[in-house]
Amino acid sequence: MTDVIEMIDPMTGEIIDEQQLAEQLLKQAKEQGVGLVGPDGVLNGLTKRVLETALEAEMTEHLGYEKHGNTTGENARNGIRSKTVLTEVGPVEIDVPRDREGSFEPKIVKKRQRRLTGVDEIVLSLTARGLTTCEVAAHFDDVYGASVSKDTISRITDKVIEEMTEWQNRPLDRVYPVVFIDALVVKVRDGQVRNKPFYIAVGVTVNGERDILGIWAGDGGEGAKFWLGVLTEIKNRGAEDVCIVVCDGLKGLPESINTAWPLATVQTCIIHLIRNTFRFASRHYWEEMGKDLRPVYTAPTEAAAAERFRDFDAKWGQQYPAISKLWQNAWSEFVPFLDWDVEIRRIICSTNAIESLNARYRRAARARGHFPNDAAALKCLYLVTRSLDPTGRGRARWATRWKPALNAFAIAFEGRIN
């Protein structure tokens, strides 16, 4: 049974539940010919009454007597002062009670507070969806009839920088069955606007959850030293063991992986390998080429895969020699994929969750055009991460049917998963 929120009707003194309250508000809006939200909306008036009632209750608790009651102490009520606060329903003008000594410190609407916390969350949510400060300001003006400066919006989003630092340094799980490392290209103004890579590491926990381990800015010339620093940071935060690391052609990364986690298997991303194959071929042949390539990466053994690839190369190699070279160069990091159980293959081959995450990152980055520096880009990417999980842990459900994969991992990596 659901709980019923009860309120007292100030006109009749009768108890009304939330359904009756909603009906009364709708009726009142129709009778007065006004909307529910906006500067003159019914919810605006209701918010004003609720905030003022709460402030009066705080003053009563502070002084120890009800309004219009007798006081035996030196301090007493001393009128009101009006101020406007920005709320989720728009700007609301409220009367804040004062006391003679000036010792009253309200908690609901603090001194010098000009907006409720819910407004900050709206700003962060809109920014995470790629809106610029100008667009967020225009949104508040259009929807709420409120004027919010660009500086205010920037200050609100800057508040998450400390939170982002804590998130980037939070403790991690002891073991991850799979870690994906992928690159995202963002435009940053560094003297001139140029494409700059930002690297995202995503782990799959033993519970089948997607865990965004962190985001790092690169400069395009990363090598083993850079990657060893990133992986050592992840390891120092508690990730003692990783079974499989899925990555794609990042220079110096495979060597660094085996230095940080000697038992880890480096696996090239199958989806990226297939997509890179198509880049060298005419779109007209993609469907046919995809059918010919499928027997290679679904083969039961390395020998069978090599035979299937010879068939593929005999048909397409002369026309597209770059494809043959691509697969030959990636073969040593491709073949570990063939050793795994089909359930493990499904997890490390399916990058739907990674791609959906990158799609959100790209959408937010494209909407901003370019960023003035790395810090601004990282803040935007973190806000997207934050929007996926309001707890700030950067986690979300990975996929269904995780238990079969967990059993396969437990057998393949006996003693390391449990």
Automatic annotation (TrEMBL):
GO molecular function per UniProt: DNA binding; transposase activity
Sorted UniProt keywords: DNA recombination, DNA-binding, Transposable element, Transposition
Record has DNA-binding as a keyword: yes
Domain of life the protein comes from: Bacteria
InterPro entries: Transposase_mutator
Any Pfam family the entry gives: Transposase_mut
GO biological process: DNA transposition
Keyword DNA-binding: yes
Family: Belongs to the transposase mutator family.
Functional summary from the UniProt entry: Required for the transposition of the insertion element.
Protein name as catalogued: Mutator family transposase
